[in-house]
Amino acid sequence: AALLAGAPAPPPTRHLFSDPAEIEALRGHLLTWYDRCKRDLPWRTLAATEPDADRRAYAVWVSEIMLQQTQVATVIDYYNRWMQKWPTLQALAQASLEVSIAGTGCCPCPRDSSSNTAPCLLEQEVNELWAGLGYYSRGKRLQEAARKVVSELAGQMPRTAEDLQKLLPGVGRYTAGAIASISYGQATGVVDGNVIRVLCRLRCIGADSSSPAIIDWLWDMANALVDRSRPGDFNQALMELGATVCVPKAPLCGECPVKQHCRARRRKLFGKPTPVPDVEDCGVGGCPLCPPAAEPWDSSLGVTNFPRKAAKKQPRVMRTATCVLERRGCHGAPEYLIVQRPSSGLLAGLWEFPSLPLAQGLQEEKQREVLADHLQAWMGRPVVARGLRYIGEVVHIFSHIHQTYVVYSLPLDGDVTLDPASSPSRWVTEEEFHASAVSTAMKKVLGATWT
Ligand code: SF4
Question: What is the residue with the minimal CA distance to atom 1 of ligand 1?
Answer without folding.
Answer: 246
